[in-house]
Write a structure and sequence with these properties.
2 copies of one chain form a homodimer. By secondary structure, chain A is of the alpha/beta class. Chain A has 2 domains: 3-135 and 172-308, Rossmann fold; 138-169, no CATH class. Chain A contains 13 helices and 14 strands. Chain A has helices spanning 10-22, 47-56, 74-80, 92-106, 111-121, 150-156, 180-185, 202-206, 210-216, 237-243, 250-257, 274-278, 294-308; strands at 3-7, 28-32, 38-40, 43-45, 127-130, 137-142, 147-149, 163-169, 189-192, 220-224, 227-228, 231-232, 263-267, 283-287. The first copy, chain A, has a 7-stranded parallel sheet with strand order 5-2-1-9-10-13-14, with helices on both faces. In chain A, a hairpin with a 2-residue loop joins strand 11 and strand 12 (231-232). The longest helix of chain A is centred in the first third of the chain and has 15 residues, at 92-106. The interface between A and B is medium-sized, with 32 and 32 residues.
Chain lengths: 309, 309
């Protein structure tokens, strides 16, 4: 059984931690968001890809949800000496990943190839595809009239700006990475991870051909709502959805995916929203979606698969 | 009084530590060897330039003579995960320097510009010029028939191979960096640091126009022999000179520089070589040249300047 997951960062990584407990990694393809990618000091950083890899390899800093466990920050401190901004917390071990990725890209490799190399170095056996090998940059326009690169909005300014609009620079010409459309077309199940529908899953859906592939795949498509009781566990998805005129609840998630989603898994807290979701033509499945430990991650993955089997 | 120093790595850095005690940094220009430069993991490393900067900034690891004091090696260890060789000991703080240099080079800066940025970041006020902004690569051919990049010979294989020949790839087309020929032509004193005549000073002399500028400058040219009693304090200069058919003593140093050198400062241990040096047309000055502490570094610099004032 082939399972393809559309993934952002922390929420997706936690969902995948459950999935790999019950499905062989060889049967899993993850399509990762690259709109968050940023260059720091000339090094290409792919936060969502790395969060998934580090998490599934058991190397993640579990307190922050990003970066490697037990990190030091000596290189970052030293980079400050040269006038660089150092608000993006790149640890010394993490930096090695970015040095390697950048080296491969400079030597002509694609992001897909660099990603595969990192996946293998961390001992993983799943397939992890960046949604595109072409550069996509998520840009946030604020109500105050500023234009911020995603990491500037997300990390430097801690999502405190009110968002007026979001766009994905480069999206018109970005082609799906090799294997992306095939992984959607040929999957048995497609899972949309509990990630931000706007800035994590949004860029994936905006790449040429991806949304159409989701609409036409023979696979069942099941999503997990990242919004519980009108709030996200982490990140700005609720506020961002509201700012953009979307309903900042699981219903809004259903609406965002209504043209391709078969099932939406929502939290018990949102049981009352089930009829509204059903009204969008999507079947709601109610369960415990907050993943505190390995057992809850596994249970959520089981529920997701059972919902479409 | 303008003083220009032709410099390799550790020996030159120690000599310059003495010089900056008695001459304002603003009056000093250092022309650095770049034949040792190497790319590791796609990062450009300029060992001789960095040794001089770190030493003069008081940041050097004084036990090794290279790298930063108090270093950790987390990034290097992590790079091993991706299959890179990790025999070149790049610390986490040091790595920041190479990330910055590489970033500037990728953005179109010259090595001269990147070097100036690093010099300034370390709070130095002297002028440090790479001998060329073009790539020069010192290649060692061994008696066993192998061809080794310099760092492979020097660090990985600890200078254990017997050397048959040394060449500088790229030297035919390498142009002197901006300011190099001027710093030689317009200096009052030119000091050839106690560096390896073959692989540290050799590449400088081989760059188009440099040797001719040394021959025709109005400055007095004074060298310090890195060979004492037929041995080097550090490094393979003695063995290398012997392998290449040079006399592996201070006399051989004099012979290597005879077409432009006015004075050669030699160690008291080599007092008996003074007549042989005089016979090459170079005036020998005998002093204590082993630099154990700040006072001895200063004393050597004073002797060098006094010899040509």
């Amino acid at each position: 059984m082939n399972i393809t997951t559309l993934a952002g960062g922390v929420g997706a990584a936690r969902f995948l931690e459950g999935l790999i407990q019950i499905v062989p990694q060889e049967d899993i393809t993850v399509i990762s968001n690259t709109g968050d990618d940023e260059d720091f000091f000339g090094l290409r950083v792919s936060p969502d890809i790395d969060i998934v890899i580090y998490t599934l390899a058991g190397a993640i800093n579990t307190e922050t949800g990003w970066g490697l466990a037990g990190e030091t920050f000596r290189a970052l401190e030293a980079l400050g000496r040269f006038g660089y901004e150092t608000w993006f917390g790149l640890g010394d071990g993490d930096l090695a990943t970015h040095v390697h990725r950048t080296n491969m890209l400079h030597n002509g490799a694609t992001l897909s190839q660099a990603t595969r190399s990192i996946v293998e170095a961390f001992g993983l056996r799943l397939t992890l595809l960046p949604v595109s090998d072409d550069r996509i940059r998520t840009i946030v326009e604020t109500v105050a009239g500023e234009t911020l690169a995603f990491q500037e909005y997300f990390v430097k300014r801690r999502t405190e700006d009110e968002v007026r609009d979001v766009r994905f620079d480069g999206i018109e010409t970005a082609q799906p990475a090799p294997g992306v459309l095939e992984a959607i077309a040929n999957a048995d199940i497609i899972a949309i991870a509990p990630s931000n529908p706007v800035v994590s899953i949004g860029p994936l859906l905006a790449v040429t051909g991806v949304r159409e592939a989701l609409r036409t795949t023979r696979a069942k498509v099941v999503g997990v709502s990242p919004i519980i009781g009108g709030k996200t566990i982490k990140g700005p998805a609720d506020r961002m959805m509201a700012s953009l005129g979307m309903t900042p609840t699981a219903v809004g998630v259903a609406e965002a995916y209504r043209d391709f989603l078969d099932v939406l898994v929502i939290d018990e807290e949102d049981r009352a929203l089930a009829p509204a979701i059903e009204a969008t033509g999507i079947r709601p499945v109610v369960t415990q979606t907050i993943m505190r430990g390995p057992a809850e991650k596994r249970a959520l993955a089981e529920t997701v698969l059972a919902a479409v089997r």
